[in-house]
Amino acid sequence: MAGAVTAWLLPPQQRRTLEDLTEDLDLTVGDATAKRSAFWSMLTLSAVIATAGVLSDSTATVIGAMIIAPLSTPIMAVALGLAKRDGRTTRHSIVFVTLGAALVVGIGVVFSFVVPSSYDLLANSQIAGRTSPGLLDLIAAIATGFAGAIAFARRDVAAVLPGVAIAISLVPPLAVVGVCLGQTAYALALGALLLFVSNFVALVLAGTLVYAVLGYSQESGLTLAGSRRKAYAALAGMLIAVMIPLAANTLVAMALTIWTDRVQQVATTWISGVPGGSVDSVKISWPTVTVHVTTPGKVPDTQALVTGLQGEIPDGVKVVVSTSVGEQIDAGSVGAA
């Protein structure tokens, strides 16, 4: 059964040899000088494009940076090295990934110097969307890792690699790390770094498993059983390492969503006593909840709002009401005498 699944995933006539796969992924074999030149030049350009796209909040620009980013190549080389138990390939590829990540972060820091200190980072969707990763991000990254590993192993599906590059977020979160570091938003930088690390781990563990199961370990002289044990051990260890913070992030995000909805409901009931009053937004920046309301008159007693929130959100949370006047003025008709 396993052999039939393997043959279906990687038909023999479409299977790349271990030598071909190593040539494609390992930046230290073959024409290493040319491959490194292409890697560093394209990575630099990708970092510049990604950072510009992030700061301009342009999804299209960020996608363009993903397509040309070559960072997945040494990451997949790490996976191949683990599957082959090739320490040299694994170590060298990790060095390329580390130095490449540092380059992108550095470019992000440089770009951050042109951003005003009053710039609201979380108002930028490209930044906000990459600073609080959750378990769904990990699941998507693992699936992308499987797709990428299979695509590299087959001769006939190279066309899907741009799609894989778009699906996995590598350079943009590193650009966000740099921008946030330059703005001294260290917590946001840590969140974006967690996203990159989780995606790196997902690619490596999926790639290691795929290359072991597809028989590349046998070509390198290893037994399939031994390679599988190594792949599964690496899978379990790395998965646990990234799942803990991602699970915590997911739980926090769920809790904030629930509490935001509860505050919205209580605040809507509270402001309904004022004709024309409405709740514009509810924002939670722990440990403070800010309720922005529009009212044509005086707001109701805020103590009633705080009392209504007891039991709905944790005790000790500070409640702030921000108001704006919703007064309507008849200014007359244009052209009237």
Task: Please specify the SSE layout and strand pairing.
Elements: H1 2-9, H2 18-25, H3 32-55, H4 59-68, H5 72-84, H6 87-112, H7 125-128, H8 135-153, H9 161-167, H10 171-182, H11 186-213, H12 216-219, H13 224-271, E1 278-285, E2 288-295, H14 302-308, E3 318-325
Helix pairs in contact: 3-4, 3-6, 3-10, 4-9, 5-6, 5-11, 6-10, 8-9, 8-11, 10-11, 11-13
Uncertain ranges: none
Which structural class do the helices and strands define?
A: mainly alpha
List the helices and strands in order. HHHHHHHHHHHHHEEHE
Q: How is the largest sheet built, in terms of strand order?
A: 1-2-3
Largest sheet: 3 strands, mixed
Number of strands: 3
- What integer value in Å does the Rg equal? 26 Å
Briefly characterize the structure.
Helices cover 65% and strands 7% of the residues.
